[in-house]
């Protein structure tokens, strides 16, 4: 599924040129090997075929994982200083958005990331949230509680789990009581505490749930 591109690159060690392969789109849910390379910090590395030295070379790419609600434009980190380039990219995105939306559930806001390290941080943080979510899911199973999906973009932003446990109602008071009970038995679940704080601050409707 990944989209490949070729480009002539000059080796910073021996100054010879060679053709290198890049990926312009990486599907995080499908291109598992490429996702591994990203997580291992090897995605940006090129090996010169002339001197066999390895060096870092960054190119723009899109990281897409609809199931995780991630659409990320990953740019070289020096782009952070180049607002004009970022603006151009955002315009490009708007022009392809219609095409991308044809794919189910792709109506979420993109992330603009500078340097693949920011993507790694996001992915590792997601693993962290998922681990805590798995524990909460198990507790809900044991306590025969129901769950609703929390919007992943909001969960990342506010450091919440990916699910909201509930019993009968989604009323603020009932939710707080239930979450407090879960948290009292499992003080390590810091995202349950964050969830309580978040719900406490809500005026009317909960606005961070995904549709079932
Ligand atoms: Zn070289």
Summarize the structure.
The chain has helices spanning 32-40, 83-101, 116-142, 152-158, 172-185, 190-200, and strands at 3-10, 17-27, 45-47, 54-56, 61-65, 70-75, 111-114, 146-149, 163-166.
Using DSSP, what is the number of strands? 9
Round the mean pLDDT to the nearest integer and report it.
Answer: 90
Task: Catalogue the unreliable spans.
Answer: none
Described by the principal axes of the CA atoms, the overall outline is: elongated
Following the backbone from N to C, one meets helices and strands in this order, namely: EEHEEEEHEHEHEHH
Widest β-sheet, arrangement of strands: 1-2-5-6-7
What does the main sheet amount to? 5 strands, mixed
Oligomer state equals: single chain
Radius of gyration equals 21 Å
Question: Can you characterise this structure?
Answer:
This protein has six helices and nine strands. It has 212 residues and is of the alpha/beta class. It folds into two domains: 112 residues, no CATH class; 76 residues, no CATH class. A five-stranded mixed beta sheet has the order 1-2-5-6-7, with helices on one face. It has a two-stranded antiparallel sheet with strand order 3-4. Strand 5 and strand 6 form a beta hairpin. The two termini are 28 Å apart. The mean pLDDT is 90. Bound molecules: zinc ion. The site of zinc ion has 8 residues, from loops.
């Amino acid at each position: 599924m990944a989209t490949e591109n070729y480009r002539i690159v000059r080796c910073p060690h021996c100054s010879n040129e060679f053709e290198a392969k890049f990926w312009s789109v990486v599907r995080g849910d499908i291109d598992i090997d490429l996702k591994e390379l990203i997580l291992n910090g090897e995605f940006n590395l090129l090996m010169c075929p002339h001197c066999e030295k390895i060096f870092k070379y960054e190119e723009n790419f899109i990281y897409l994982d609809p199931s995780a609600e991630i659409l990320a434009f990953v740019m070289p980190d020096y782009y952070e200083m180049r607002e004009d380039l970022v603006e151009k990219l955002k315009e490009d995105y708007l022009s392809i958005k219609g095409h991308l939306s044809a794919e189910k559930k792709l109506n979420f806001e993109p992330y603009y990331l500078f340097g693949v390290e920011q993507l790694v941080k996001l992915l590792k943080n997601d693993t962290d949230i998922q681990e805590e979510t798995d524990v909460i899911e198990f507790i809900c199973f044991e306590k025969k509680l129901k769950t609703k999906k929390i919007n992943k973009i909001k969960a990342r932003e506010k450091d919440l789990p990916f699910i909201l446990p509930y019993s009968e109602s989604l009323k603020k008071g009932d939710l707080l009581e239930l979450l407090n009970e879960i948290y009292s038995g499992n003080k390590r679940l810091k995202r349950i505490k964050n969830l309580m704080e978040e719900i406490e601050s809500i005026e009317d409707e909960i606005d961070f749930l995904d549709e079932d």
